[in-house]
Amino acid sequence: LQCSTRCVGQWCLASLHTACSVAQALPAKHLVYRKFSDLVDRGEGKRYSRHLVDRRRLHVVGGKGGDGACLYTKHTKHHMIGPGWPCGGSGGKGGSVIVKASGGQKSLAHLKGDIKAMDGELGRKKLINGNSGQDSIILVPRGVIVHELLPVMAEEDPALEAGAEIQEFVRGQLLVDLDRSDDQVIVAEGGHGGRGNTMAKPHVAVPGSPGQDKWVELELKS
What we know:
This protein is mostly beta strands and 222 residues long. 4% of the residues lie in helices and 31% in strands.
């Protein structure tokens, strides 16, 4: 089999040809299992191969919740000792990563390896809460099934403590089967926003919680 960048009129399995530029461009953790080319006519007698990607691994991270504010407003009518009345607002909720089926998509080739939603905004003065982070929506074709991936590395492995990158996974539970358009599922929930300082706890503000951090596998049913 020839590389897809050189072959014309032949099927090319990029994942089986080590010299293929497409296979070399993908990291090992995002390697697509099956690829094939179909020829596309772009005029002037030139034909190029277009890859149909039917499986993809993604690292999805929900946005962090915004921190609560520890702020005060000055005493206006009373001469009191202290920083003032507590008036810190709560932080906004972090955005979530959502997989949504769309009739306009035919392949998974447009998806990137790491997808993160936006963080929530910080709380503000005068008890104004921060805005929620924007969700990150992943558009996929109809007929995609989503599995959660679980890391194989043991907890006692020193490489895991050193922050080494996880390369091996096993399939976990089936999250959803997207058969119809506009079907969607939240694969990584955003963190909750922290509470600002109040009269009950005038000097305490709670930080926002982190969003979910997961690996998922998307597969287009044949």
